[in-house]
């Protein structure tokens, strides 16, 4: 399925996308915090190694996962006077 442009979404779909992105951001923040906690624990226990880099990589992927950027979504919502 091809990613649709924000201008092609209906008002209802745009509001749903904003709601999904908001809840996904909260869940991602919790997961990223947990992964960073694993890295900090491993550094404190002096077990720095390859397995310590895996949580850092996963946290990076979660940060870059957003379907639409926050600025684009906010601009589209303001443009349609939905928010």
Q: Provide the residue-averaged pLDDT.
A: 80
Structural class: mainly alpha
The secondary-structure element order is: HHH
Rg, rounded, reads 17 Å
Question: What does the secondary structure layout of this molecule look like, with pairings?
Answer:
Blueprint (H helix, E strand, L loop, with lengths): L10 H34 L5 H14 L6 H10 L4
Helix pairs in contact: 1-2, 1-3
Keywords: Membrane, Transmembrane, Transmembrane helix
Protein name: FUSC family protein
What does this structure look like?
- The chain crosses the membrane at residues 24-41.
- This is FUSC family protein.
- Keywords: Membrane, Transmembrane, Transmembrane helix.
- The chain is mainly α and 83 residues long.
- It has a domain at 30-83.
- Helix content is 70%, strand content 0%.
- It is built from three helices and no strands.
- The chain has helices spanning 11-44, 50-63, 70-79.
- Helix 1 (11-44) runs antiparallel to helix 2 and helix 1 (11-44) packs antiparallel against helix 3.
- The protein is elongated.
- The two termini are 28 Å apart.
- The model has no long low-confidence stretch (mean pLDDT 80).
